[in-house]
Amino acid sequence: GEDVEQSLFLSVREGDSSVINCTYTDSSSTYLYWYKQEPGAGLQLLTYIFSNMDMKQDQRLTVLLNKKDKHLSLRIADTQTGDSAIYFCAESIRNTGFQKLVFGTGTRLLVSP
Amino acid sequence: ETGVTQSPTHLIKTRGQQVTLRCSSQSGHNTVSWYQQALGQGPQFIFQYYREEENGRGNFPPRFSGLQFPNYSSELNVNALELDDSALYLCASSSNPGLQGKTEAFFGQGTRLTVV
């Protein structure tokens, strides 16, 4: 099946760490992605992880992947007010001749000063 | 800036009308995918164009159609608009259709379509 689930909302204080969680269903996904969407804007690719990795760190971002449980998380260290946005988890699904992204419903992150 | 541009940014149409949305892909990219993002939802895959051919389609009716041109820009056409077609339409360009592993998709800012 193709289903990606995320919690809807997360509120943190500036300087804290944020952890956004995601579960997916397709065990054949090769890559998993995190996108950021600011109000009125398109999607910005933040980071991705290959399915044979457990962890990937990229500056303030840490992605953890538990392939057995099909669970993905994004940790943002030292969260800033500019990080307030909607964060989407996406899995890549490979079909005959093409690959598509299946997105979760997004987690709205609110960072207060 | 991703180098992917969409036009128009906003559009209001009446139920039953037809609409054409446009996307210019990033230089060097030959693949364009279209997504529909309803309010409060994640984007849903509509279809993908690779080298001017539709090579993949999501669960959308035939009144959603598209084109890709020799310069790899693309159009999304929607006929017989319904109120539920109101959404943000996102175009994503990539350097390949994703068969060789990781495909980084660069998204445009989207076209906000309102059907009244």
Oligomeric composition of the shown chains: heterodimer
Give the beta-strand count of chain B: 11
Strand content of chain B: over 45%
Uncertain runs of chain B are: none
Radius of gyration of chain B: 13 Å
Largest sheet of chain A: 6 strands, mixed
Order of helices and strands of chain A: EEEEEEEEEEE
Cα-to-Cα separation, first versus last residue of chain A: 40 Å
Shape of chain B: globular
Which pair of protein chains has the largest interface, and what are the residue counts? A-B, 26 and 30 residues
Helix and strand composition category of chain B: mainly beta
**Amount of beta strand of chain A:** over 45%
Helicity level of chain B, as a percent range? Answer: under 10%
The share of residues in helices of chain A is under 10%
Topology readout:
The complex is a heterodimer of chains A (113) and B (116).
Chain A: E1 4-6, E2 9-13, E3 18-24, E4 31-37, E5 43-50, E6 55-58, E7 61-66, E8 71-76, E9 85-95, E10 98-103, E11 107-112
Parallel strand pairs in A: 2-11
Antiparallel strand pairs in A: 1-3, 3-8, 4-5, 4-9, 6-7, 7-8, 9-10, 9-11
Chain B: E1 5-7, E2 10-13, E3 19-24, E4 31-37, E5 44-50, E6 53-57, E7 64-68, E8 74-78, E9 87-94, E10 106-107, E11 111-115
Parallel strand pairs in B: 2-11
Antiparallel strand pairs in B: 1-3, 3-8, 4-5, 4-9, 5-6, 7-8, 9-10, 9-11
Give a short synopsis of this structure:
The complex is a heterodimer of chains A (113) and B (116). Chain A is mainly β and 113 residues long. Helices cover 0% and strands 61% of the residues of chain A.
What does this molecule look like?
The complex is a heterodimer of chains A (113) and B (116). With 113 residues, chain A is mostly beta strands. Chain A is built from no helices and eleven strands. In chain A, the strands form two sheets. In chain A, strands 2, 4, 5, 9, 10 and 11 form a six-stranded mixed sheet that branches. In chain A, strands 1-3-8-7-6 form a five-stranded antiparallel sheet, with no helix packed on it. In chain A, a hairpin with a 5-residue loop joins strand 4 and strand 5 (43-50). The termini of chain A are far apart. The mean pLDDT of chain A is 92. With 116 residues, chain B is an all-beta fold. Helices cover 0% and strands 49% of the residues of chain B. Chain B has strands spanning 5-7, 10-13, 19-24, 31-37, 44-50, 53-57, 64-68, 74-78, 87-94, 106-107, 111-115. The N and C termini of chain B lie far apart (31 Å). Chain A binds chain B through residues 4, 30-31, 35, 41-45, 48, 50, 88, 90, 92, 94-95, 97-106, and chain B through 2, 4, 33, 35, 40-45, 48, 50, 55-56, 58, 90, 92, 97-99, 101-110.
